[in-house]
Amino acid sequence: MLPFHQVVKDDFSAVNELIIKQLHSDVGLVENIGHYLVEAGGKRLRPLMVLLTANALGYPQTSGKTEHLDLAAIIEFIHTATLLHDDVVDMSNLRRGRPTANAQWGNAPSVLVGDFLYSRAFQMMVEIGSMDVMAILANTTNVISEGEVQQLVNAKNPDVTEDNYYQVIDKKTAILFAAACEVAAVLAGATPAQREALKSYGRKVGVAFQLVDDALDYTGDAATLGKNVGDDLAEGKPTLPLIYAMRTGTPEQAAVIANAIRNGDASQLGAILEIVQATGAMDYTLEAARGQVRDAIAQLQSLPDNTFTQAMRQVAEFSLARTY
Fold first, then answer.
1. Which SS3 state, helix, strand or coil, does residue 23 take?
2. Most buried of the four, 206, 212, 234, 272, by CB within 10 Å?
3. What's the rounded Cα separation, in Å, for the pair 231 and 308?
4. Is 99 helix (H, G, I), strand (E, B) or coil?
5. Smallest Cα–Cα separation from 176: which of 154, 150, 209, 152?
6. 212-236 burial by CB neighbour count: b if 16+ within 10 A, else e?
């Protein structure tokens, strides 16, 4: 458990128990895949942000309620559903150092269990009974789906612009971070200014997280990452390190990268790693992430200064410093 998990350790344990409880199904395969995904662990940053935000604003200390735990589980179910669908679309076979669900059980069960997790999340939302929460999360799941489709359209297209790239990561990744903070703010009765600041904080942390993720695909190693290095290239994904390297490199260097993206070909990974380093693309990507983290931390100024907001700063810094 990372240090910033410790300040909500009891809440976190309760959320894990709730997730197991809510995975119950009369269909054994649903439970098998659900438990397989939960046991894989992961950083659980999105539900963590729900817990930290709610506690930073004094909920549940003043309300005596535990609906923030339900929201954290809901956010994790939505995230896990997107991973199941994402791995099928990307034909991924490794996640968090283990075979993906689709590699274990096949595409059809993975898609259907992803649907189960989405619908279970909405069942839990109904029980909370907040139209504001439902509106935020209904919009979020819709935008995530748009982002997935947009990324699919961008695949194997070396002409994708930096602006278009940011649109995709905002929809695919950042919006769920933003929603995690915003729904907790709604639950805790935050002021409109606090709600907007927390939404912005989450969004910026999410963008930084994805920028670093895309950088790690060209700097990490499979054992640490829990996925294959060069997967993005094999899928023909034009991420920021490649977009910048094509824009600033020589015509020959740009052609090597463009051909690899166009063909979804990772066989030139070694040469492309050299180009990415030589053009300063990695520094450019990480500096963009640093800017997002600085802006995210600045959004916390309107919140009370307590152990929970301090942990939120640490989460933002972790999104930049992480190696997995």
1. coil
2. 206
3. 35
4. strand
5. 209
6. bbbbbbbbbeeeebbbebbbbbbbb
Polymer length in residues for the chain: 324
Q: What spatial distance separates the first Cα and last Cα of the chain, rounded to whole Å?
A: 14
| C-alpha to C-alpha distance for 281 and 247, rounded to whole angstroms | 10
The Cα 278–Cα 273 span in angstroms is 9
Beta strand 94-95 with 98-99 is antiparallel
CB 141 within 8 Å of CB 78:
yes
- Which tokens in the block code for residue 127? 């029980």
What counts of helices (H) and strands (E) characterise the chain? 18, 2
Q: What domains appear along the chain, each with residue ranges and CATH number?
A: 3-321 (1.10.600.10)
Q: Which long-range contacts (CB under 8 A, 24 or more apart) does 315-319 make?
A: 315/4, 315/45, 315/48, 315/49, 315/52, 315/205, 316/201, 316/204, 316/205, 316/208, 317/293, 318/2, 318/4, 319/45, 319/205, 319/208, 319/209, 319/212, 319/289, 319/293
Q: With H, G, I as helix, E, B as strand and everything else as coil, classify residue 97.
A: coil
Distance of CA 3 to the CA centre of its chain: 19
Pair 103, 40: CB distance under 8 Å: no
CA-CA distances (angstroms) from residue 119 to 77, 124, 138, 304?
9, 9, 11, 35
- Is this model's pTM higher than 0.90 or not? yes
CA-angle at 180, arms to 302 and 316, nearest 5°: 60
Choose among 226, 214, 204, 223: nearest CA to 315.
Answer: 204
Q: Please check whether residue 47 is in contact with residue 15, taking contact to mean a CB–CB distance below 8 angstroms.
A: yes
Give per-10-residue mean pLDDT for the chain (324 aa): 86 92 88 81 88 95 90 95 84 76 85 92 95 97 94 95 97 97 97 97 97 86 54 90 97 96 92 94 96 97 94 95 73
Write down the residue that tokens 């990695």 correspond to: 282
CA–CA distance, 202 with 83 (Å, rounded to integer): 19
